[in-house]
Amino acid sequence: PRAALPCLCEQRRDWGRRVELEKGELERVAPEKRGDKAIDVARLAAARVSNPNIQLYWWERVLEHEPEHRQAFVELTKLYAHGERWRDLATVLLRQADASPGNDDRAAALRKLAFVEAHCLGEPASAGERLQAVLELDPHDLDVHRIHRELSHGTPVDWAALGDRYVIAGIELAAIPAPIGSSSPLPEISPAR
User: Fold this and answer.
1) What is the pLDDT of residues 131-170, one digit of tens each?
2) Which of 65, 123, 127, 167 is most deeply packed, by most CB within 10 A?
3) What whole-number distance in Å separates Cα of residue 86 and Cα of residue 75?
4) The whole model's pTM is what?
């Protein structure tokens, strides 16, 4: 009977209910196979369920079991950005930076995190820390030096001029309006040694 429910949900095209049934199934799967199960359900939810909260739930489950799963980071970033959930987006970008295998991926996540913190959350001090971390990875990143200089002087940053380095999930970050009171200066960033 339990196995018939998913099939019945598929026949009725009730994908939300089908995905909901998988929550219990995830706990019944052997621990070493839970990551694969969560990935399968997350992909099903992304393809068939329009409710972003259900998709978020499953992509978070993927990261619980597969902490370095690239697609989960991409999907969570996209969902949080489209939902304008900036604090959650910042958390995912930080997790992505920490889980990144190489300096280029880590620097890319930190650049975007710095933007979200400075522009969307109005936290220039945190953005300054992220920019410092990028400079430690790549001391010759002229864009980061320029962004810091512009932010520290209260000059608006031309994010669009930076190209796809500051695009999150297809959203050009330059198109996101700055929150009120976000023009406070950044702390000085010392050059990387």
Assistant:
1) 889 989 988 888 888 887 777 777 777 666 665 566 555 5
2) 127
3) 15
4) 0.75
